[in-house]
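=== RUN LOG ===
request id: a7f3
mode: sequence -> structure
chains: 1
length: 93
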Amino acid sequence: MQVLSHSIGTDERAMAEHAAFDIRIHDRPLHSGFGGGVHHCLGHFVARTDMAVALPRLAQRMPDVAADGPGEWLPVSGNTGPIRCPLRFTPEG
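=== RESULT ===
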C-alpha cells in the first residue's frame, strides 16, 4: 500500500482542474489521508473539523507567506513528513 499511497491525488483525469494546491478550493476529490475501510481513522471527524477552522484562519493571518528554499523531508516510510520547511513572510506595509 505504501507505494500506491504516494500516487494518490495525482491522477490528471481527476485532478486536472486543481493540479496545484490551493487551500481555498472546496471541491477536491477525496484523498486517503485518513486511511480507508477497517483502517479508517476513528478521529477523522475531529481532525477535519479542526482543520476546517484552523487552516482558513492561518491563511488569513499569513497572506504573504511563501516557500523560502527547498524543504527537508523524512524518508519514505509510511510516516513521511517535513523535517524542515523554510518560509518567508513579507511584512505588511
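=== NOTES ===
Helices lie at 2-5, 12-15, 44-61.
The first helix runs from residue 2 to 5.
=== END ===
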